[in-house]
What does this fold into?
Amino acid sequence: MRPGPVAEPFTEPGEVPTALPDNDVLGRCVRRNRDALGPELGRALGALQDDTLLEDACGLDLAVRAHAPERCASLRLSSLRETCAFRASIVAGRPEACPAAPGLRGRDPVCVALAARDTSLCAAASLTERARCFALAAGDSRPCEALDPMLRPTCARDLDPLHALLPALPRATPHAPDAARNGWSTAIEDASVNIPVGWLLRGVFLDENDTLWFVDPALGWPAVGAMAVDRTLVGVRLPSRRGSALVLDARLVAVGVPVLSTFDGSLRAAGTLTHATHRRGGRVAGTLIFDGASAGRAVHLELHFDTFVRDVVMATALQ
It folds into this structure.
């Protein structure tokens, strides 16, 4: 991780920077931008009697140039606060400071990949966000051109602010788990059928205790009252070590069956890891076997996986 520079104060073109306390730097920035406003925008901000936008805009710039994501917490507008954390964490090379992914468990995968300086981790992002990940990594908007025209502005929105501060990263081959090796194995008419699990292709989580978490980032740990309509829901915690072991905790929701859990004894689950890891980006492969019963119906399912660790996070962020 490269050290972050001392924050540069805001200066006019051609002005020699001088060391100033953060409050003075912020104040100069706000005054400079207020003076540069057009009359219409200036009157609108005056009517609102609120300098929040100007102060947050200057605070964002200061945090990013200082390589200090912790400064972003002082921003009052939530959208700018999240943008600040995203940009500052990337520039500082601190994936652990990346903001949460919108609507998902865990951190923003684009931020994590770029802050970790590992573009192979772009595979944890959705297809649209993956293009954005590659564009920001290369400092080039061309990966965004493959997207729908409506999505291109969002793809490239952080490109200019980061281009001067983030060196172009080497293009690594993204993790590409095989769908045929990541899915439920079940028997139908004496034939083995594999039902792919899409979220496994984008990786699993590792927590601070070296425990692997198999959980859909969009849905999280299955709730006690969850019902499966068209797919099986699962949450599993498994020690990250090669060999076989009973899982630490598991919850399974199969179609037409109430929640089964190792906690109440309605589910028994065991896992075998053929590949284990204790780092972000490492390979994880093996099998999880579930046996349970509810309302007179027996359930036996096997989940096969050969994927990677998308991020290392605190366990409390995943439930």
